[in-house]
Amino acid sequence: SRYFTLTDYPTGLPRRELFALETQELPELGPNEVRIRNHWLSVDPYMRGRMSGIRTYVTPFELGKPMEGGAIGEVIESTDAKVKVGDRVSHMGGWRDIAQLPAQGVTVLPDHDVPEQAYLGILGMPGMTAWTGLNRIAECKPGDNVLVSAASGAVGSLAVQLAKAKGCHVIGIAGAAHKLAWLESVGVEPVTYKDRTAGELSDAIQLASPEGIDVYFENVGGICLEAALSQLNEGARIAVCGMIDSYNAEKPAPGPSNLSQLVVRKAKMQGFIVADHWSNYGYFLNEVAPQVAAGKFDYQETVKEGLESTPEAFLALFEGGNTGKMLVKLEG
Ligand code: NDP
């Protein structure tokens, strides 16, 4: 098996050299274990939080030990009665080509007519995050004016489409021109944050949504939050999903200068962690998977080839290198 380890905890944007590719011979399977040939690896912004050496809501990566992450693969050996050779499964043994795990830590993929890697993106953790943040945290309802930051990413791209499907007016913030074009293609008002101050971004949001913002789905922080706060309607709800703008910050970023807008607009701001809502995953799949299979939602992905490219794929998340879900495809 070949796998990545982290050799030190980074400050700032991690350097490529911090990721080491190692090889090990796997032992024979113990009872109720499976061996999986990974086809697809997920890289996600939350992994940066596991590189800090400090326990937050996920335990940090242990230096020198195999890194972990979402992955999809095929069972090639099994000593478990329920998970069989040939089953396609999702599990957390990513950042490696062959994973060996207790069978209870793997989930056999459901039988929807979608590509298997969709279970790392639109029908996996990011999709479930979009659905939870929009419906359960922001309590989005038809007719709301909905603003989403990092709107063309894995979470954002489903959040905007779910809001559109509900009959909302949706504004999406993203960087590059091709991302803005994609947003427009799914009926979203595109707004770029590049080369803009918070004030300029706020003006652009106002132009795109003259009737203000009722729901803000926050993925970024920084100037996106400041601009959103200044466009809130009375009783607005902000679902704080993430703040990627600060994940590589070496010093804490200053708070938005206009946080008092929450008072004036009688708005509500709530953070959430998708893992706490996992008991709803079945509802989410029942609702969203048939629509994905029917082509109702546009599912974008950015694919890097080969295990060696995993660190680059991860680092590119912080530079806008992905439209939709960032994935690594393994050969064989
Ligand atoms: P994305 O697919 O959205 O990838 C990250 C994107 O963020 C980039 O493509 C880039 O798009 C944008 N971005 C990166 N840095 C900045 C910056 N400094 N300012 C503005 N935009 C930036 O990632 P995910 O969809 O997987 O995750 C989105 C957010 O959701 C993250 O904050 C993540 O931590 C959070 N999350 C939270 C979960 C929870 O349980 N609370 C679960 C899953 C994700 P662009 O080119 O537009 O700049």
Automatic annotation (TrEMBL):
<dbReference type="InterPro" id="IPR045010">
    <property type="entry name" value="MDR_fam"/>
</dbReference>
<dbReference type="Pfam" id="PF16884">
    <property type="entry name" value="ADH_N_2"/>
</dbReference>
<feature type="domain" description="Enoyl reductase (ER)">
    <location>
        <begin position="12"/>
        <end position="328"/>
    </location>
</feature>
<dbReference type="InterPro" id="IPR013149">
    <property type="entry name" value="ADH-like_C"/>
</dbReference>
<dbReference type="InterPro" id="IPR011032">
    <property type="entry name" value="GroES-like_sf"/>
</dbReference>
<dbReference type="InterPro" id="IPR041694">
    <property type="entry name" value="ADH_N_2"/>
</dbReference>
<keyword id="KW-0560">Oxidoreductase</keyword>
<dbReference type="InterPro" id="IPR036291">
    <property type="entry name" value="NAD(P)-bd_dom_sf"/>
</dbReference>
<protein>
    <submittedName>
        <fullName>NADP-dependent oxidoreductase</fullName>
    </submittedName>
</protein>
<dbReference type="InterPro" id="IPR020843">
    <property type="entry name" value="ER"/>
</dbReference>
<dbReference type="Pfam" id="PF00107">
    <property type="entry name" value="ADH_zinc_N"/>
</dbReference>
